[in-house]
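Researcher: Hi, I'm a grad student and pretty new to this. My advisor asked me to get structures for two proteins we've been looking at. I'm not sure of the right format, so I'll just paste the first sequence and hope you can take it from there.
Model: That works fine. Here's the first sequence with its structure tokens right after it:
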Amino acid sequence: MFIPGPLPILNDYLGKGQRFTYNTAKKQWGQSIGWEIRRQHLRPMGRVFIRWTWQEKDQRRDPDNVTGIGKKFVLDALVTMGILKNDGWKQIAGWTDTWVVVPECPGVTVILEECDE
């Protein structure tokens, strides 16, 4: 699944004391990601390994900031949409992250690979 971006970064929320801003962004991104989940006809899955490919416009944003909030928003949407039962240890076997520069198409590709229980 591809989620157009750029997704927000962790630094947008750290130390700002703006819980309302975070909650609003989480809701908005959850709806956008939910739309992509529906559009791409994802089916419920058990335990998964996740491959993340983060596409950035340039190299200005640090990789840890890019993935911090982005993963949270995507995983929460996958749970809300019923694709994953939860986003805990029993459902997530692990993941890998890759970063690439694609100026004309920022976002993240998320590949869910179902694992044996």
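Researcher: Oh nice, that was easy. Here's the second one.
Model: And its structure:
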Amino acid sequence: DIDGLRAIAVLPVVLYHAGVPGFSGGYIGVDIFFVISGYLIGKILLDELAAGRFSIVRFYERRARRILPALIVLLAVVSIFALIFLNPNELRRFAASLVATATFTSNFYFLATSGYFDLGADQHPLLHTWSLAIEEQFYLVFPLLLLALRNKTDRVRQMVFGGLFVASLVTAQFMVAERPDAAFYLIVSRGWELLTGVLLAAAAPARVDSQRVAAFACWVGIAAIALAVVTFDATTPVPGLMALIPVLGCALLIRYGKSSNLVTQLLRAKVLVFIGLISYSLYLWHFPAIVLLKVKTVGGATALPIALAVAASGLVAYASWRWVEQPFRHRQRVRTRTVWVLSLIH
């Protein structure tokens, strides 16, 4: 069901970037990704902490195996196409964004140069990497926080996570009114979304006596996400309180995802699980494909070429998942030394 939920996150993002009508709020798929990421990483680290196996070095190795291989291939390939398609001014901007992406600071770069919803923002092939920067900045700090709380009780840790969640959400609500671009791009106003997942991981397993209650919660969750996808747009003040709609919807689906009902059966459908498995690579590849097509097409790309670009990015995403992501996840196939060398090269 988590992989199915990843599909529910990535598909609206892709359709939003492709300009498909009815997906004006599709960008909230990134908010869903943040919740999923916070939950999975939080659960792994909290379980390791409880078992006495917590290691920051091992955590960063896993992150490198998960994130870097597909990202490095993407940056190399997109750089080649940028050299072919972009004019000198565009190429200089691309080079700056390339460096920012490689150092996981692209959220700062795009905050300084282009708002996410600004006219012409979709001319930056690496604009979508701002979300990767947010995640990696969060995971630079979160393991250190866990290390500082390693001797505390579960209750104390939950209170700390909850306090940080509230502080970040209040900050986000203030910033969307005063500095909306900064609110969109910065970890201080996005952290609460990742912490939502962490709080889910830190909570005791859901105890539901009635399958009807679980089914109702799942229907509310999927409806909240659908509502945000359809009704949100560039003017919606996210990631402030409005973002609670898709974030809490996602939280409900995670919390009650092990129950058996029509929604969870949908999330476990093979096609959604497959899309969820390749979702990271699909997220990486779809946006540069669309942007470079628009840059290359005189007079603007029409629906058919964009559809073909998205379809092509899906095929490349599968290849990336199958032959880049998967081998690097296993120590038996790619040694730890290779991962660290790759990290240094990156």
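Researcher: Is there anything I should tell my advisor about the second?
Model: You could mention this: The chain has a mean pLDDT of 92.
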